Amino acid sequence: MAFRTTANFNNAPKPWITIPTELIGSIPRITALLEGQQAYKAGRISKNQLDVLQDKAVRQTIAELEKTGPGQITDGEQAKPSFLIYPIAPLYPSEYTFDDMIDCFTIIFSDGHQRTLPRLTKAPFRYGKYAVDYVRKAQQYTCRPIKQAVISPSALSNVYPRPTIPGYTREQFLDDLVNEVEKDIRLCLEAGVDKVQMDFTEARLSLKIDPSGKLLRNFVQLNNRVLDRFADNPEYYNKIGIHICPGGDRDSHHSLDIDYTLVLPLIFDLHVKHFYVSLASERDRKKVLTMIREYIQPDHRIFIGVIDPIDARVENAEQVCDRILEAARFINIEQLGTTDDCGYAPFSDDESTTRAKCYDKIRARVDGTRMAERILNTRK
Prior knowledge:
Number of strands: 13
Distance between the termini: 17 Å
CATH topology: TIM Barrel
Order of helices and strands: EEEHHEEEEHEHHEHHHEHEHEHEH
Radius of gyration: 21 Å
Number of domains: 1
CATH class: Alpha Beta
CATH architecture: Alpha-Beta Barrel
Shape: globular
């Protein structure tokens, strides 16, 4: 928690409480990179040429994010194929297949479009890419604190096929999965990141698949197997957060119709201190905030979503400020942070939001947070 001091009317110093504000992760890819991705898929450019385009996109995005305000930044996930499959994409097609689509886990969005996970075909489960590679690249272009998003084990647990792989049980797979996700997080922390955010966007979706809540409970338990491995290191444990949202891709959600208050009680069973909770897109924010107030623990920090990335309208600082002041009636300022509901382009081919609009929204979040911070500190 950051403090500075100011004087009251009796000239006695009092602490100034800073409300941290953070980006979730992704920024729409630059045009040259989008064109390069298509050229690479068509075989018109080499992997090395694509790497050069990704490198330029990372450098440009970091420079642009630095202009939106102080604090930590991300690399905009410019080099990720998506937030979901970056660790396993390099292993296509030797260890994964889309051949049996019936057996593949598919996410259906409200506008009808779909995103599909491939099916694992070869043991053991392993990563072909670790997020620390993105961290090291970003560190070449900025001295600012870096935040890195990683995918949850619960999301990747869906790559295991319904028919078991001969000689490789689901239990063995889950053991390997937990080990790899732990390694993904640990490498980022060892590289010096300021925060690691585990994306758990399938939490709300799980209740659409299984309304009984059993699947969500299993997801929480699986994620805790990873999180518990950092419990004996306070420095690392304090840098890990969880992101929960109803999905956001091509201007549509996958689970906004699921009652948030059915999800949140189990979310707070996660063994983590920082929660990134989408809120701007909710119709009844007060209902959600009431439940957060009921379940929040003294060591928790709640980063509330004050920007809706898929809303075509650009929020202004005053709107953001009002949303924060509303939340402050339920959450102590010492435990409050702000963020965007979701990334702006979780999948690399998502062009539904322009980069210019994205930066306007980010600046509104930063400016609105500072505005609310001044008001709340004055009220103390």
